[in-house]
Structure formats: C-alpha cells, structure tokens
Amino acid sequence: MTMPLQLPTSFVDVLIVGAGPAGLMCGNALAAAGGFEVKIIDQRPSKIAVGHADGLQPRTIEVLQSYGLAERLLHEGNHMYMSAYYNPSHDGGIELTTRVSDVSIPNSRFPFKLALHQGAIEGAFLNSMAQYNLKVDRPVKPLTIELSRDQEQLHSLSSYPVKVTLARLDATTDEDKLEVIHAKYVVGTDGAHSWVRKAFGITMDGDQTNYVWGVVDMVPDTNFPDIRNKAAIHSLNGSLMIIPREDEKVRLYVQLPEEDTVDPTTGRVSKSKSSPETIVEVARKILHPFHISPLSDIEWWTIYMIGQRVASKFSVEDRVFIAGDACHTHSPKAGQGMNASMNDTHNLAWKIAQVLRGWANPSILRTYEAERRKYAQDLIDFDKRYAALFSGKPRTSADQDGISHEEFFKAYETAGGFTSGMGIHYGPSIIVNTKHQSCAENLIVGQRVLPQVFVRAADARPVEIHDLLPADTRFKILIFLGLMEEESRVVEINALAEQMSSPAGFLRMYSTDAQTSASMFDLLAIAAGNKENFNYLNVPLVFRPHWSKVLLDDTDVTGRMGGGGYKRFGISSESVTFVVVRPDGYIGMVAPATALEDVHEYFASFLLPCH
Question: 83: which residues sit within 8 A by CB, 6+ positions away?
C-alpha cells in the first residue's frame, strides 16, 4: 500500500484508544464536562452484545449515579444481596455452610452488587455520549504513535505533542484508510494486550498462575437452592462460583483441570481444548448431589488462566496515560476488573478537564498514577490471596491441609471494603490534605463521602447528599454551619461569609467569573436545627447561591429518613467546619473555619488563579 502524500489531519484535546468500560467512562466524563475536542476509537465493529464483565460493585454504582447513569442499570440488572457458601459434606457431596449479606460494609448506599452484562453498561455510556454528540469511531485502529521530546512542547498547554496515525479498517480505498491525529493527551484504554502500553515499552509486572477457569452464561434447569444468590462452592471435585444474572440467567465460574485446557507448546489456555458442554459437565460434578443443565443454548463462554500483573507506570510525560486492563489484570471472581477500570478513568477525566481549561496546574495529573497504581497493586495483592484460597483444595476430615471455610470466609469478610469499592483510600498528596482530620472524624480524607440523608431547609424535602455531588468537574464545598440559634453564632457566620467573599478568598480567586464561583465550586450549607423553626434566609448569600443549597440535619416529615448526620460524620455542631469534596466524590480536605487559610493554601497548591 502506498502512503498518500498528504494524509487527512485533525487536532483533538484528547484521543481515547479503546471503547470498553474504561474508555467510555473517560469519553462520557469529558463530553459531559463540555468544551473539549474528544475522539474515541475502537477496532471492534460494534459494542459487546453478550458476556465479558458482568458485575458492578456498590461504589461503582455510586460513581455511575454521580453521572446520572445508575437508574437504568439498576432497573435492568440483578441485585445480589446474599452470598451462600457450600463445602464438602460427609457423603462426598456438598452442603450449605452459611448465608451472609454479600456486601458487608455498613455504610453502603447500595447494599448489593449488580449483575448485568458489559454490553448493557457500555450501552448506557454510548446513549449518554450521544447527547453530547460524541460517538465511537469504529472500526479504527492506531498504527503509529509519537510523543514529542521537546520539553517546551510537552509543557505548553497550547501544544499537541502526541501524533497518532490511525487506520480505518472498513475503508474501501487507500485514500480513505489513513488519518493523522495530533492530540494534547492520549488515554490508552485498549485492554490487557494494550497497543498503547506496548508502543511506549511499559512492562506488566507480576505472575501468571496455573489456575484455569471456565465461564458459562446460561439459563439453568436446577434444583440447587441458592441459584439466585451468589454462591461460592468448594467441593472435592473442584470449586465453582455462581453469579445470578439478569433475565433468569446465571454465570458459572468453574475451576478446570490445567492438563485438559492448556496447550503444552505455548503454555496458554486454548479454547480448542475445551467447550461449554465440558465446563457444564465439570460444574455438575462439583454441585453433586444437586443437578444443573442449560434450559436453552449457552449464551456465551470462555476459559482463562489467572494472570496478576500491574503496569510499571501508568503515564508517559503526563501526556499519555493507560487505564483499565491496559495497566492491571487479575481474576474476575472478586468482581473487580470492570469496576477498577471505570474508576481509573473516573479518577483521571476531571484532572485532564481542569488542566485543559487552564484551571489547574498540570502537576495534578501525576496524582492519577500515584492514586490508581497503588490501588491496582493492593488489588493484585488481595486477588493473589483470594484466587489461591478459591482455587485451593477444601479442608476435610481426611485432608487437614486443605483450606477451611473459616479461612476462606475471613479473607472475603476482611476484604469487604476493598471488594465493594467502599474502602478505596487515596494517600496524602497535593489534592489530599489530612492536616485537620480530627474536625470530621468519620469523614476520612482520601475516602468517598459517606451517604447521608439531609432535608432541604426551604421545603423539607429529603435529599441524599450523594445526589448533590455530581461528577461535573467542580469541587463541592460542604459548609457545616452548626447550630445558628445564638445571635453570636450568626455574627460569626456572617463575618466568615464576608471573609470568603473577598477578592483574595479562594472562591473569587479561582473562579472564571470574578462575581461568582459557580464554575469551579459548588457550595452547600448544612445547618444543625429543625425544619419547624429554621429560617434558611438567615444563611449568608455566599453560602446559599440557590434556595435548594441550604440543608438541615433533621428527619423528613415521616421521621423515617435523615437526622444524625453531624454525629455520623463526627462533626461538632458548636463550630463551623469545611468539607472539600473533589470532583470524583472523594474528600480532599476537612478543616475548621478557624483554619480558612489552610483551605486557601490547599487550593493554591494546584489551582491557577483565573484573573
């Protein structure tokens, strides 16, 4: 093929390579933020229709809710509330050991996991992106990528230092086949065999295990009593996990003998050495004395060998990033793959948006690797323990060296914060400041905001605080005003409002419009008091940009929702406390009003004055 002399060329702010869950999360977040030229490509001719990843953890549901995407998925997916654990019985079969709540974390807004195939989740993103006129360009693949070595270019916000040549796979003529993209940023979300990662020589560090598993999606005919609960089964014939799915389906994860599935010449699993019927037959033996068979055709199946690896780095010169399976791989049974992937780009997208707008120093981009690579490493460490326990032989009276139910169950329980996504904890950095943690003891800086119902002071409508923290690239400033009954408190709060309204205060210094802070900051005032006699107009204007932005820590009119928020968060109602929430819903800082200067310094460390 001869190269045309002049290839079609275009300039974009962000090029996203790969339109799986991580790429679509990134594309949707940037499209919703608005004002950017975004291009997203994928070499598959269409989105996934069946199979692949299948589970959303409680924290991921919260994140999707912050983009307005959870409702449809909650309606379509299967809610998993309970886990059942089965172990060998004395007569050679299996028996129920215990049933417990599948989500063991008490502060979950969604106390269940959601089982739904990856295609439906991708569909929700694609529909959302279409509203912002962003579509996936497919089937397109990258051929070459060059990153400028010119330091001036790399540091200039107006430059496009990444050059990518793309090939359109369905082109009928050579003229239509190639195009050149100049990008300010490239995000590689192109899967475990990532082309972007390999192009920059980034290594994947870790191990391949010798555990081989088969996966089957089907509608079952069975007398197994826990077929609609998540079930972890250890038998003398191997291990099995059952995930109840949407539309009467279940997914079976079945441990397979290595010698029957691995090609000895390559050391890799070979689908030609297995079949869905073989996987179901192994599941039958594990489930004895219960029976199981497909009611109709098997919808999807695969086999895999567990690999547990993390990329040596997640970014190159803060201009090219990799996310999702491109930078971490692990076993699917802890239900982390798609969840970790989407949360990678949820972490990254707002940072890129702030830098592109000229609002934040590019140094903020370094926190992506710092925060998400540590999480990926922790994930792999957990997965190693969990996969080994799940794949190991169960303990029996005849074999005391096997894995006991207590050992397996304890590992899963202790990792509850991790597997639910609730325990994600980002360490100190320019965007995580723990100096005043003691003034809001239970709102852990670096973790997500805890869910809590407050009531709107103006109309007593109950509202979940999470629904007031949309992922819209703005920082949310929650101002806990405490009790406002004493005249002296009102004077103190008015003085604070005046101080914060000054041109030197962070609200004005970092706003694109000198008169309002709404583009960068979203303010919510939360007072301690009761709905019967609280007058929201007593809250200074700077703290109530709109009547709906003043909340009360009180119950709703039924007395069944809300109340106790100050106590739950560990905040005193005797003083004013700031809680700074990052655009991704994680707490960046808490501080007493007396430390307003520290809040100013927090923002000064990474935001750029706008005038």
Answer: 99, 100, 101, 102, 229, 230, 231, 232
